[in-house]
Amino acid sequence: MTVTLADVAARAQVSPATVSRVLNGNYPVAATTRERVLRAVDELDYVLNGPASALAAATSDLVGILVNDIADPFFGIMASAIQSEIGGPGGRAGGERLAVVCNTGGSPERELTYLTLLQRQRAAAVVLTGGAVEDEPHASAVAAKLRRLGEAGTRVVLCGRPPAPDASAIALTFDNRGGGRELTEHLIGLGHRRLGYIAGPEERTTTRHRLEGHRAALAAAGIEEDPRWTVHGRYDRRAGYEATLELLRRDPTLTAVVAANDSVALGACAALRESGLRIPEDVSVAGFDDLPFSIDVVPSLTTVRLPLAEAGARAGRIAMGREEPPHGGIATIRGELMVRGSSGTPRS
Amino acid sequence: MTVTLADVAARAQVSPATVSRVLNGNYPVAATTRERVLRAVDELDYVLNGPASALAAATSDLVGILVNDIADPFFGIMASAIQSEIGGPGGRAGGERLAVVCNTGGSPERELTYLTLLQRQRAAAVVLTGGAVEDEPHASAVAAKLRRLGEAGTRVVLCGRPPAPDASAIALTFDNRGGGRELTEHLIGLGHRRLGYIAGPEERTTTRHRLEGHRAALAAAGIEEDPRWTVHGRYDRRAGYEATLELLRRDPTLTAVVAANDSVALGACAALRESGLRIPEDVSVAGFDDLPFSIDVVPSLTTVRLPLAEAGARAGRIAMGREEPPHGGIATIRGELMVRGSSGTPRS
DNA sequence: AGCGTGACAGCAAGCGCTTTCTATACAGGA
DNA sequence: TCCTGTATAGAAAGCGCTTGCTGTCACGCT
């Protein structure tokens, strides 16, 4: 039914071994023979059987990219950058690899299952992006799985994710804490003293780090934080919208709202406007990530730019063994404060 | 080194065949035996070898999702919906499938290579999303490849993509033409007579269809189009920004700008504002797709909502054989005009 | 002339699983 | 009691490819 290596070999009048070697190009084959083989491949429209070759060679050309939410540009941008370096089709020549992005939806179980699936496929490399879940049993399960993957020869790289406690994987981490701190310092510098904070889901590292940075800035300025000023929600505009309404309900005198990320900030802006508040005259707003739309909204968003594409590209190269891992296996990538229209001095 | 089926069998004191059957659950195995096997699997921390099982069974649990640009929420949302229905981890129970999204970057070659890679992996199904490239040789190469995939048992579904000429694949198409027409009719209804159009890349079906809809509306209203009113660019904000500047340069009297999609519209808004024009008082703006941010920008964007998530989910179910394909293999999905703040009556 | 030496090509042994067919065991029914 | 049917387990033959090892041949050297 389907064409196999043997068929090609027969047609080219060579042994299957020779065909395999022509296709893999890692063993000397005379030019004329190669030619003959390639012609046969072409004529028969032969396509290598991936599973069979993966089995025989004990390696595969699959590279997994785990993301929390593929519909979120934060992950999309990173995934895109990683993938372009993985050198899937169109990347630099050489082994064509199938870069596959897996959407965990932020669920620890799915993350684990995808990891198992990739392990099952004997993936060549795995890149995990975005914040991790801090739930203890899950965290150690993931760590164990990553260790096992590493032992099996799969290269594991974390991108925008805190290093594993046992440092078993190479990690490119975003300095969420530092960015969060800088952002809030900026607002404090403008004169704000009552700042609401819309945090992400409780159990995520990203959420915690950004919040810690925020609080560190408050503490450094001697501002005592009111527990009512913090609300948790998901990382999307809807959550930002609702959280802002809640914040306003709890304390209408807030002069600034710091959001967990740009999408949340967008929702916050909508809520503020609907509440009749002007930005930034009445309330300042700040985001995080600097996604593409952030500069276009009105007023443009004050935020912390994270070099998502650069980090992704680097992670991709490291995963492919095309770049040296950072010294010590861990690199911290800093964000850059982008001061724009959504932040201003508080109303007196 | 690595644990194999045979190791598990030895430990559980059964034959490899039995272990395989326990794992695949499609053959009667006594409860006590099953139990013993599962315990052994657990104790040895055994993970099935995907390639080996795919080879032996001649099927795999990979499902491919092709997207033009993973960093674009348009595709992210669809991919996410498809994936959740594919029932990757966390989906409904049963066969766990590895849904992999492949980023073609809009390049025909990469699209083709990914298709080959998926064919090589003997993918269970493939979903192609978004507009196709109209370049003839490429189009027929893709069609041929899809046909071959179909013959090999891979289910092929097109989502948000025009049906293949030979109707070889199931297609869920967006009515881009109708949406484009409706949108422009709306603007004409408001009194606009000089409308700029920022189209996507020339060779894409989506671009052409939306533009045709626009022109049909103009023609129906007896408005003769000035060729200077159309500019082509990519589907991103940057392109929208630049195209708008160009449009303004060519004809400063335009009263409306219709963009290829929401991101482009966002860039257009930025350019207009920087040119000192108010929206919609001086110039109306319209987008397409109704991405999540479109309702939050100021002014909120008049656009055509495409049910991306619903379409994706449906495509996913069809790909998994969990929903009947539409009658005739083709379904057209209509968009819905969303009239919002960015469109108004033209300045007299 | 004899022979070491490259440069290629082929043989054949798996890689780890699935699955068909066969074997065994026990329960009823005749 | 013997035979048949049913439930369950095992033996073994691949699935299509890779690769270590074994030729074979044509040179060029001594």
Automatic annotation (TrEMBL), chains A, B:
Report the GO molecular function annotations. Answer: DNA-binding transcription factor activity; transcription cis-regulatory region binding
Q: Please state every residue range assigned to the domain named HTH lacI-type.
A: 3-57
Q: Which SMART domains match?
A: HTH_LACI (SM00354)
Please provide an example of a Pfam family that matches this protein in its UniProt record: Peripla_BP_3
Q: Which organism is it from?
A: Streptomyces humidus
Instruction: From the UniProt record, list the coiled-coil ranges.
Output: none
Name of protein: LacI family transcriptional regulator
What are the entry keywords?
A: DNA-binding, Transcription, Transcription regulation
